[in-house]
Every structure is written in C-alpha cells, then in structure tokens.
Design goal:
The complex is a heterodimer of chains A (362) and B (501). Chain A is α+β, with helices and mostly antiparallel strands. Helix content of chain A is 29%, strand content 29%. In chain A, the strands form four sheets. Chain A has a seven-stranded antiparallel sheet with strand order 8-3-10-1-16-15-17. In chain A, strands 11-12-13-14-18 form a five-stranded antiparallel sheet, with helices on one face. A four-stranded antiparallel sheet of chain A has the order 5-6-4-7. In chain B, the strands form seven sheets. Chain B has an eight-stranded parallel sheet. In chain B, helix 4 packs across helix 14 and helix 11 packs across helix 14. The chains are: A alpha+beta (362), B alpha/beta (501).
C-alpha cells in the first residue's frame, strides 16, 4: 500500500520564513526552525519548499521528479522531450544520511514548453504545464513530479524534517523564502511522494490538520479537471488555491474568504459592500469551504500566505523582525532562529496573513 | 358465483370492562365503524369499515380501544399472499384500477437504513454545537459561473436568483384540495416562522396565504390549475412539476366532489368538475420544450425567482437531470419511489420508479462528471423520515430535502393510507368541514415548528460529531458515509465504501 491508495490522516508541524526585501538566505535557517518541533513529527515524512533558489534558471519550470526505476525515468524523459525544451537536467544533489533510506531516483529538469506544442494545445503556458504534470503523475507508472514551479523547488522525503534537510543539502540553497513541514501520519505513506510540501506550479502548501470537508472539496475540485491522486488534505487545498487564485482570478484575500469563510452571523454584521462581497464569495464557491482543523502556509512566487481554519483548531504563530517574516506551529520554532522579534502574534481563525516582496524586489 | 365477502384486515378490539359507552368513538369516526346499540346499551364496531387511523383509539377517554391485525388467514402460500388474493377479488368484483394513498409500503430496500455516519476521534476534534457556531443555512439556486470585476477591480456581486433556507428542509408539494385549508395554513405559517419554504402543490394558492409568499414555492403542473401572474409573482420560487415519485408517468385526478367552494375558486375551475392533470404537460414533449416553459416563467417574473423542475426518480434519471441542468432550471427536485400521494393507482405506486438514495447518488455524480453540478441545486424527496435521513441525503450530494409525509405525521396523520377516500379523521386529507376543523392550525403549525427545530438540533449534533461546522462542507461529502450489508454494485452507485473499509 502506498499513499494515494488510502486516506492517510496526519498531524504535523509547519514553519515558514520570508524576507520581504528579497534578501536571500540559506536553507540552514529553516532546518533550525523545524527541528525544534521534532515531537510534532513521527519520522514518516518531512520536506521543504524554497523560493528564489534557482536565479540562473528563473525563466524555466523546475521539475523535481521521483522515479521508482529507470524504466519510469526513460518513459518520463521521452514524454518531457515531446512536450518541452529541456534546458538542463541532473540528479538532485543529496548526501548519505543514516536516517534516510530507500530513496527513489531523484532528478531535476529545467524546462520550457515547446512553442509548437503549446500553440496547438490552445492553453495558456501555465495550464499547459499543469496538464503535463497531471499526465505524468497519473499515467506514467513509477514517475512522479513533486515540484513544477519557476525559481522554486520542493525537497521532501520519508524521515524527520531535519534529516530530510541534511539529506538534500538544503544549506547549499539560498532563497528569499523557505517553508518546512514535519509529518505525523497515522499510517505509513509507503513512498516519498506522500511527504509534504505539496506543490503545483509555484504554489506550495504545507499544512497541519485534518479537514472534515475533504470529500466535499475533492469532489468539487475534481469537476474542474484536477485529479486527487494522493487522498491528502494538502493536495486538495493546493488545487483549491490554484483554481481560485490562478483560474478564477481571486486575490489571495478573497481566497481566504472562500476556504475559511466567515460565519454567516459575522457576515451579517459587516458593512453592506463587504457583506455583499462575502455573501457572493461564500455562496458562489460553497463547496470549497474547508472545515475542520488546519493551519497552512502557502508559498507562491513573490509571497507567502498563512491561514488558520475559522475556529482556529490548530496552533499557528507569526512574528516579524525588520524585513523578515516568520510563521510556525509553535512560537519556539520562531524564537530559536530570531529571539529579538519586533512583533509576534497569533492570527485569528480565518484571518489570512499575506506577505509579498516589496516592489521591485525578487 | 364467488362470494364477495372478504374478512376485514383489522379488528377493533373493545375492552368492555373499560368502555363507558360515551360514544366519542362513534362521533369521531367518519368511516362509521362504531355504533351504539340502544337495546343492549353497548358499543359495537363494524371492522370492515375500519381504516386503522387510530382516531377513536387516541380519543377514547378510558383507553378501551385498540386496533389489531386480524389473525384470520388464507392457507399459507409463499407465492400467493392474502393481499394478492384479496386484490383479485376486488378487481373481479369492481373491474377497476386499484387505488392507494401515501408512499409505497412494500418491502424494497431502504438504503438510508443501510448507511452509517462517521464521527471524529483523536485526529481531529468534534465540535460541540452548544459551544461553537454550527451553520445549517443553505442557498438554493444556480451559482455565478464567472467572476467579473468593475473598473476598480471589485467583484461584481451578481448572484443568480436564489432562495435561502435556515435548515435544508422544505415542505413538499401538497395541493390545497388534496389537503385541507387548515393543513395548508399550518404548513405556510410554520415555513414562515422557520425560515424555510413550503410548496403549494398544483392546486393554486388561496388568497389568504399570499402573505406567506416569501416562504412559498408555487407549483405549475400539467393541469395549470390556479396559475396566473399574481400567483407566480407572490412566491419565493416556482416549481414546474414534471412528475411525482408516487406515480411517475401519470397525471392526477382530484374528484369533483372535492372541488367545492374556495377550492374551485383557487383552482379556477367550476365547482363539482373533476380536476384532471394530464400525464405529460401538453406543451412539453421534449427537453427543448421544457426550456421554453422555464424561460416563460422567468419572463413572467422578471428573472427574479429561481425555477425548480421536479421529476420522479426513474431509470434514466441522471440523463434527464443533466438535460434539465442545461435548460435554465435553477433547482432540480427529485422525488423517489417512496414519495407520498393523496391518491395513486396501486400498481404504479408500488412498481414504478427508483429509490431516492440511488437516484440522488447517480444524479449528483453525473452532474459532477459533466462539470455542471454548480448550475443547479439538488433537492430530494420520498421519503425522508428523520434528521439522519437528511444528513445522509446531504452527504450523498443533496442541497436540501423535501418532506411531505413526515410533515403530515407531525400534524396528526397516522399513515392509514386512506387519503383517497376523503374521509380523513385527522382533518388533513379531507374537505369535509366537520373534519377539517379537527386540525387546529394554531397547534398544527407549532408542531411543525417543533419538528423542524428538533431536526435542526439533531443535524447540528451529527455535523459536530463529524467535525463539520457548516452544512456546505457536508454536501456530497461521501467519505462521511459507509454502507452496511450492501453489495459492490450498490456501493458503487452510492459512491460510498463499505463499513470497515
């Protein structure tokens, strides 16, 4: 049994660091943060997302791949060659860590869609990439794209997050934003693809919680061409954010008003303009409301969003120091890397905290 | 020559030690079962007239009465039941179509009873509705398909017409004529107080009830009785009745005897004339015709009201629903084969149609497969018996449910299934003044309010147990359901796993 064949409930730790000025820092920092919350994981999954880590290839989609075997790699590479210009390909550098075992083949490709293929698909470029990612993940057995954005990348494995970070030599990457996840699944995921972050294009999601609306959300989002192959909350949340933000053009603030919509009784008390907007969003996307406990950190190109479920059934703390923004499941995970905070607070349930790069920085 | 005497199905058992011969039973029984014999100063009963409605039992001051099923029997036969034999006697005698009332009572599977709900343990918290907000409000209607913004980048908040319910339960269509004025008044006032909707059925709307318009669905059926512009505009929503679960494929017939006084006026037909609803709408022989009627009604009401299309659950219900979802309808109501009726041919009621659970699961899936589930809301009926059925229906994919029989039971109906006789001792399915007045709308409406309020509490408890605090998150959430004792095919159609999986 491997992830996707059953529903795997998880508890978790999440952490995120963001430099508003776009100053790049080493991945070492996020490992220090997440490792404080060792007790919140159980060694069955850990991972990171880094933004701004591939400046030399920033115009190309970076595909991070797990392969079960060489046959899968061959078949996938043939697919990639038919649809993309492959600018660069290599193994993702790793180091041997005793705690990390049974690694699959881990490869990275910097690609751009073939202009002719893209034109004939009649899709915009990002939709074309999404379609190809789904194609690989659902139809090439043993091949799995776990990261597909530009100038960002996901690194994940079975193990405790601090071991996963060392395995991937995360300290060698520099970016303006990192997020991290330590997983406490109730069942063995069976393979590395089940670890988090979950990513699509430049959206990456780390999530702590178990959403009670899962199947309502899944069945709704699958109407719009998404396929939930992993049966995890994080996967469906990522697709919902992609759908609302990229496809429907909602701002992230509006996305928060859909997935963690205020209670009707709260909406009724708002001034007319705001009330009508909240009513509209909540009723138009009623099946994308997420209930049950969650705290999520969403990474995207040039920004970071932290959001709790509307009852705040999971812990999440944010802090600021100069241009740095921190978010984590526990305050200790922030204090360990920056004890001298200008401001630290717990966002309310349903209140999204959205941070973006200052203008002109990237 | 056969002898026509058939031994009565029920026996009236009177405990003469208790009977004080007060003659209440005699006065209360419109079927004239009870009689006082002066000579011997004793009450006697003619069992053959008894419909087992419990009116006399309920009102007997000394609890001297009970009704029992007779132990008189035919020679045992696994193939020829007593019921089959007696029905043949009846038809051989009268040469007519057998008539029945209320929902299909036969032994078909009740899928709701083979579905169990989930609850939270450890990995996520259950939510206590007494401590935390628990939302049961639903909006019915189609959803905005595109997000448009004004020049300032603000979303244009143009919502297609919709109706709002405080809890996803409505009172289903029961016409004024098939049920009494007092029954209608009870339903209308209850809907109004509860913030839900009731449905006029096909008999028009009595002028006294226009004031409940905000909570009224007006129906347009094949007979078009009582349909006019003011009627349409008085409502919160308009329902085109294409079919009824109890009698798919056939029309309706309210006998002239019931077309009296206000009923004649409300239906806009002469007193004493039979009100015959044709089997099809004679302006709808295909899906494109339905679209025209939907838009005619929208034109007549200035595109301000959602249009519901109600169909009976039949074998290709998902394809039909898919067609309706593309025909301008805002809401599709599906009525299962256990749905109630004031009168239907027995063979139709008992042998035509589909269980609502399967119809709902299949329609919801089809609309999702086609990517048009958000074009419409789904309302299901026939038969929803409790708040647990409501929760299961919503988790299978319904936006809301209709209840008919359950509402009538709250008003005092004892399910004797004799509505077609017009002699309802409880004042519900009758137009006889002396019977109608037995139903006091001041008490009746309160009982309906109590029922729905109780269900609302129970729905919140079940949702909270699942860790869900808003009904939208329950809709179509089939992982919250498990089947027990169902085969693979049934599970596949319901789209749920078996218990233990």
């Amino acid at each position: 049994m491997r992830e996707g064949m059953f529903r795997n409930l998880s508890g978790c730790a999440v952490s995120g660091i963001f430099s508003k000025s776009g100053k790049r820092f080493s991945g070492e920092l996020i490992i220090d943060s997440i490792s404080v919350m060792h007790e919140r994981s159980n060694g069955l999954g850990g991972g990171f997302a880094g933004y701004g880590i591939y400046p030399e290839y920033k115009d190309f989609y970076a595909f991070h791949m797990f392969y079960d075997n060489f046959a899968a790699k061959k078949e996938c590479e043939e697919f990639l060659e038919r649809h993309f210009d492959i600018i660069n390909l290599s193994k993702i550098p790793t180091r041997k860590v005793p705690q990390i075992k049974d690694e699959p083949l881990i490869w990275r490709y910097f690609v751009t869609p073939l202009p002719t293929k893209l034109a004939s698909s009649q899709l915009d470029e990002r939709e074309f990439v999404v379609k190809c990612v789904f194609r690989i993940n659902t139809s090439i057995k043993g091949a799995y794209v776990f990261s597909s954005g530009k100038n960002m990348g996901v690194f994940k494995a079975m193990g405790y997050p601090e071991d996963v970070g060392r395995f991937y030599r995360l300290e060698e990457y520099e970016g303006y934003c990192f997020t991290a996840h330590g997983r406490y699944p109730t069942n063995t995921p069976g393979w590395w693809g089940g670890a988090h972050p979950f990513a699509l294009l430049d959206y990456s999601v780390v999530h702590n919680g178990e959403i009670s609306s899962y199947d309502a959300n899944r069945r709704s989002i699958e109407m719009y061409g998404y396929k939930c192959t992993l049966q995890t909350d994080t996967e469906v949340i990522t697709y919902i954010i992609d759908y609302l933000n990229r496809k429907k053009g909602l701002t992230l603030k509006e996305v928060c008003s859909v997935i963690a919509a205020p209670f009707w009784s709260t909406i009724e008390r708002k001034p007319q303009e705001e009330r009508e907007e909240l009513e509209f969003l909540r009723s138009t996307f009623d099946s994308l409301l997420i209930t049950g406990p969650f705290s999520i950190i969403v990474g995207f190109e040039g920004g970071l969003m932290a959001l709790n479920d509307r009852l705040k059934l999971r812990s999440m703390v944010v802090g600021e120091k100069d241009d740095m923004f921190y978010v984590a499941s526990e305050e200790a995970a922030i204090r360990v890397i920056q004890n001298d905070l200008d401001r630290v607070w717990s966002p309310k349930g349903g209140e999204g905290v959205i941070i973006t790069l200052e203008k002109g920085k990237s | 020559m056969a002898v026509n005497y058939i031994y009565p199905e029920y026996e009236v058992v009177r405990n003469y030690d208790r009977c004080i011969a007060c003659r209440v039973c005699e006065r209360q029984c419109a079927n004239e079962v009870h009689e006082y014999l002066k000579d011997i100063k004793k009450m006697v009963a003619d069992d053959s007239k008894c419909v087992n409605c419990h009116r006399c039992v309920s009102l007997c001051p000394t609890r001297a009465l009970k009704i029992v099923k007779t132990d008189h029997t035919f020679k045992e036969n696994a193939n020829w039941s007593g019921k089959s034999i007696q029905e043949i006697y009846k038809q051989a005698e009268g040469g007519g179509v057998l008539l029945s009332s209320m929902g299909n009572p036969e032994k078909y599977p009740v899928y709701f009873d083979k579905i169990l709900l989930n609850a939270s343990q450890v990995t996520n918290p259950s939510i206590d509705p007494l401590r935390e907000p628990m939302e049961t409000k639903v909006l019915l209607g189609s959803k905005a398909q595109n997000i448009e913004r004004d020049e300032n980048g603000r979303i244009k908040k143009v919502m297609p017409p919709h109706v709002e319910l405080s809890v996803p339960v409505m009172f289903s269509a029961m016409s004024y004529g098939s049920i009494s004025y007092n029954a209608h008044e009870s339903l209308a006032r209850a809907a109004s107080e509860l913030g839900i909707l009731y449905n006029t059925g096909e008999g028009g709307l009595h002028e006294d009830f226009y004031k409940y318009g905000k909570n009224t669905i007006v129906q347009v059926a094949s007979g078009r009785f009582g349909v006019h512009k003011a009627y349409l505009n008085s409502s919160a929503a308009i329902e085109i009745k294409m079919g009824q679960g109890a009698k798919p494929g056939i029309g309706g017939h309210l006998p002239g005897a019931k077309i009296v006084g206000d009923i004649s006026k409300t239906r806009m037909i002469p007193e004493g004339s039979d009100a015959i609803s044709p089997a099809p709408h004679h302006d709808i022989y295909s899906i494109e015709d339905l679209r025209q009627l939907v838009f005619s009604l929208k034109e007549a009401t200035g595109y301000t009201k959602p249009v519901i299309v109600k169909i009976a659950a039949v074998h290709n219900v998902s394809a039909i629903a898919s067609g309706i979802a593309r025909s301008g309808a805002d809401i599709i109501a599906i009525d299962g084969f256990r749905g109630g009726t004031g009168a239907a041919p027995t063979r139709i009621r008992d042998h035509v149609g589909l269980p609502i659970e399967l119809a709902l699961a299949s329609v919801d899936k089809r609309l999702r497969d086609e990517g048009i589930r958000n074009n419409v809301s789904l309302v299901v009926a026939g038969s929803i018996r409790s708040s647990a059925d409501v929760v299961k229906a919503v988790a299978l994919g319904a936006d809301a449910v209709y209840i008919g029989t359950a509402a009538l039971i709250a008003l005092g109906c004892h399910l004797c299934r004799s509505c077609h006789t017009g002699k309802c001792n409880w004042g519900i399915a009758t137009q006889k003044e002396e019977l109608v007045k037995r139903l006091n709308p001041n008490l009746g409406y309160k009982r309906l309010v109590n029922l729905i309020t109780a269900w609302k509490h129970e729905i919140k408890e079940m949702m909270g147990g699942m860790g869900i605090n808003s009904i939208e998150a329950l809709k179509g959430n089939r992982l919250m359901l498990r089947g027990v004792g169902l085969n693979e095919k049934e599970l596949e159609i319901l789209g749920i796993k078996h218990a233990g999986e």
